[in-house]
Design a protein that fits this description.
Elements lengths: L3 E4 L7 E4 L1 H10 L7 E5 L4 E11 L2 E11 L6 E7 L4 H13 L3 E5 L10 H21 L7 E2 L5 H9 L3 E4 L18 E6 L7 H7 L13 H13 L6
Parallel strand pairs: 1-3, 6-7, 6-10, 7-8, 9-10
Antiparallel strand pairs: 2-5, 3-4, 4-5
Length: 238
């Protein structure tokens, strides 16, 4: 089992103090004490690791004895996720983060049943970003998954137009996802529709041939991770 991962924006010191929410989580929830090793990352590729030399209810102090950095993954995987209802949103964000998706773009699709008033948009984004943050640490990522602002259909179309590989999943498509060739570099953009499916007007706006994932129909909360994993297995995971 690998060392636990925690977040700290600055990593330059020989002794790193984890306080605040991260420090309390390490000391009180995880019960990490002196002598145990942990890794601290800035979520942007840099990391520092070492043994805990002091611990209290307020946090822990780590004596750094190893440092490194991880290059940004290429191709970048972007998943446009139609906003699901209830707990399925959290499930989608967590699994997309765990599998290695770099950017999650919430999409207010025609059939999402999401009322985009300012207060609800702000709360939704805060939740999605908190889920991605925690899942990034849990899956021991050095580059944390990002969550973009909620996108309109027109903005999703722009993402697809600029992608090295644009992918729109649709249950009535005849072309299999497995027939697509992942690019060596650039963005793979995967669009996941809501439970009611992508509307015909949205497909027309996207202006690309959709593909099907497999013989079964997946829920909106699981289709993205399945599609991302299928393409990652033939690109970054080889």
């Amino acid at each position: 089992m690998g060392v636990a991962v925690f977040f700290r924006a600055e990593l330059g010191l020989d002794e790193l103090v984890l306080d605040g929410a991260e420090g309390r989580h390490a000391a009180v929830v995880r019960r990490i004490g002196p002598g145990e090793r942990l890794r601290v990352t800035d979520g942007r590729g840099a990391w520092a690791e070492g043994a805990v030399v002091a611990a209290s209810k307020g946090g822990v102090t780590v004596a750094v004895d190893e440092r490194g950095s991880t290059p940004r993954a290429d191709p970048r995987v972007v998943v446009v996720q139609a906003v699901p209802k209830g707990e399925r949103a959290e499930l989608a964000v967590e699994m997309l983060t765990e599998v290695g998706v770099d950017l999650i773009v919430p999409w207010n699709a025609e059939r999402s049943q999401f009322r985009a008033n300012p207060e609800r948009v702000e709360k939704t984004l805060a939740k999605w970003r908190a889920w991605a943050f925690e899942a990034s640490k849990q899956s021991r990522r050095t580059w944390f998954a990002e969550v973009a602002p909620i996108a309109t259909t027109a903005e999703v179309a722009e993402l697809l137009a600029g992608a090295a590989l644009p992918v729109v999943l649709h249950e009535e498509a005849t072309t299999p996802l497995a027939s697509l060739e992942p690019p060596a570099t650039g963005d793979i953009v995967i669009v996941i529709g809501p439970e009611g499916g992508i509307a015909p007007t949205e497909l027309k706006t996207f202006d690309i041939d959709p593909v099907r994932l497999g013989d079964t129909v997946l829920r909106t909360s699981t289709a993205g991770v399945a599609a991302a994993a299928a393409l990652l297995a033939r690109s970054r995971w080889t």
